[in-house]
Structure formats: structure tokens, C-alpha cells
Design a protein that fits this description.
- This protein has a single domain, classed as 2,3-Dihydroxybiphenyl 1,2-Dioxygenase, domain 1.
- By secondary structure, the chain is of the alpha/beta class.
- The strands form two sheets. A four-stranded mixed beta sheet has the order 1-4-3-2, covered by helices on one side. It has a four-stranded mixed beta sheet with strand order 5-8-7-6, with helices on one face.
- The chain is globular and about 55 Å long.
- The chain contains two helices and eight strands.
Length: 142
């Protein structure tokens, strides 16, 4: 096998070839599927790409915002209703949209923020939580 030239700062790929993902979707088990669907759609501005039903009852939904996809599913309560959701987990989004205008739009639709948008590490950032307590951070793409 011929020697490969590696640019500084780049690791050589291991053999066999390393994993290369193209997209990621988060699946969130929620306590009240209707409430969460309404929050992501009506407050955050996601659109409903697909709904999943079983025996005529809504059990999940695929939600999109730009290139980002989130799946929500009805929690069956099998591990208890009082457990903390999203501990140590944050969904981080980047957008070319104006963060302050986006925050205002969310608030005008009845959403809430964990504080006003602010400047952090050279980008504009806002933080919020969904009805189940999952943390979301939305920042400008510079």
C-alpha cells in the first residue's frame, strides 16, 4: 500500500474505513405527544413532516426545521413518569436567521426562553426548554 500524505491537523483514516454519517436525528420520548407536537410546531416553528399512529392514536411525529429533523414519540411510562428527561442532553441548533428576531417570534407565539439571547464565543445564542424539560440551544452560524 503506498504511503499517504496527511495534512497537519488531520488524522489518518483507520482501516477498514471509518464511519461517515450524513445527518443525525434526535428521538425524544415525551410525556404528552399532543402538547409536545403543538409546542414544536406552534411555538418553535417546526413543520410536521410525518405523523405516526397506532390504532388511530397519535404515537409519534417527525418534525423538521430547515435541514434538522426531530422525532418525538409518546413515552409509555414504563420507566416511571417522574424521571428527569434530558439530563445531560442538549439539542444544539445553528441558523443563519437573526437570533433576536427568532426569539421574539417564539415569545410572540407563546413560547418561553431561559433568558434573553446573548453573545457567547462570537455568536448570538438563546436557550429554552421544551415541555418535557429537554434543553435546546439555538445560535447564529456567525
Amino acid at each position: 500500500m503506498p504511503a499517504q500524505s496527511i495534512s497537519p491537523g488531520f488524522a489518518q483514516r483507520a482501516e477498514p474505513e471509518t464511519f461517515r454519517a450524513r445527518a443525525i436525528s434526535a428521538m425524544l420520548a415525551v410525556k404528552d405527544i399532543q402538547k409536545s407536537l403543538a409546542w414544536y410546531r406552534d411555538k418553535m416553528g417546526f413543520y410536521v413532516e410525518q405523523k405516526f399512529e397506532r390504532a388511530g392514536k397519535l404515537t409519534g411525529a417527525a418534525l423538521k426545521a430547515g435541514d434538522v429533523r426531530i422525532l418525538i414519540s409518546q413515552d409509555d411510562g414504563g420507566t416511571g413518569w417522574d424521571r428527569v428527561k434530558g439530563a445531560g442532553f442538549t439539542l444544539q441548533f445553528t441558523t443563519a436567521q437573526d437570533i433576536d428576531a427568532l426569539a421574539q417570534a417564539i415569545k410572540s407565539r407563546g413560547g418561553w426562553l431561559e433568558g434573553e439571547p446573548k453573545q457567547e464565543s462570537g455568536v448570538r445564542v438563546m436557550r429554552l426548554r421544551d415541555p418535557d424539560g429537554f434543553r435546546l440551544v439555538i445560535s447564529s452560524s456567525r
